[in-house]
Design a protein that fits this description.
It is a single chain. The chain contains 8 helices and 9 strands. It is an alpha/beta fold. The chain has one domain: Rossmann fold (3-Layer(aba) Sandwich). The protein is globular, with a radius of gyration of 22 Å.
Length: about 250
């Protein structure tokens, strides 16, 4: 036990020991370690390595579009075909196509860029189900940590395109929207593809978040742009992306 003085009073501070089964040990220091010893926090260098390797890939590419969407979408789905077509058209215009590297919409976007000879990047992460690197990338990197992978996907593109997806897609969407809303990054085109899927979410944002609870501002709803065809998405992107002003790492 150690004593510290704060002003005129004395406060007793107990030396703490690492609790073997607390989350700091099990989740942060070393999930696979025998005792969760703090020495296993050398894991931080694996995290640093992912950032360094990711930044090195991003530096090679200028104009870029990042495409998000469900890993469960199959090639016969209209959204898969739309993601493939839109990515092909953007790749022909010089956009590097970036995705999370997995199946579904991610694969569709990589296919689109790959088949026209464009640059097709996959930032993949190993998961117990669904996720494995698709073969349609010209360059890829596997991640162990979600947060470092998210930085790569959201750091340096000129447009972010969201097809229907699950919690991961929503997570990526609201990260970008929050950064724009709080002016941590300059406004960037955020394209939501598929009215049937996105209109209920936008209606909730307007009716509940904006009008009923006033937790957002009217201008926050202008961050999104909703489209329902490849033509509309393509025209909007070319009109609103300054191809001469590229976000760079």
């Amino acid at each position: 036990m150690v004593k510290k003085l704060f002003g005129r009073g004395k406060v007793k501070v107990h030396k703490s020991k690492i609790v073997p089964h607390c989350r700091v040990v099990t989740d942060l220091l070393d999930p696979g370690g025998e005792n969760g010893d703090a020495i296993q926090s050398w894991r931080i260098f694996r995290i640093m390595s992912e950032f360094v390797q990711g930044f090195e890939i991003l530096r090679k590419h200028g104009l870029a579009a990042t495409v998000f969407g469900s890993a469960r979408t199959n090639p016969a789905d209209p959204y898969y075909k739309a993601a493939e077509e839109l990515s092909s058209r953007l790749a022909k215009k010089g956009f590097t196509i970036m995705t999370g590297g997995g199946p579904g919409i991610m694969e569709a976007a990589n296919v689109g860029g790959f088949k026209v000879g464009g640059k097709s990047i996959g930032f993949n992460i190993q998961l117990p189900f669904e996720q494995k690197l698709n073969p349609y990338t010209t360059e890829s990197l596997n991640f162990d940590f979600f947060f470092s992978r998210k930085v790569m996907l959201s750091l340096a593109s000129e447009v972010y395109i969201y097809f229907p997806g699950g919690f991961g897609t929503m997570d990526e969407l609201f990260e970008i929207v929050t950064l724009i809303q709080t002016k941590k990054i300059e406004p960037i085109p955020v394209v939501l593809y598929g009215k049937d899927f996105w209109e209920p979410m936008l209606a909730f944002a307007e009716k509940v978040m904006l009008k009923k609870y006033k937790t957002i501002s009217p201008e926050d709803l202008e961050i999104f742009h909703l489209v329902d065809t490849v033509d509309d998405a393509y025209k909007y992107i070319l009109k609103n992306v300054n191809c001469n002003s590229v976000r760079q790492v």
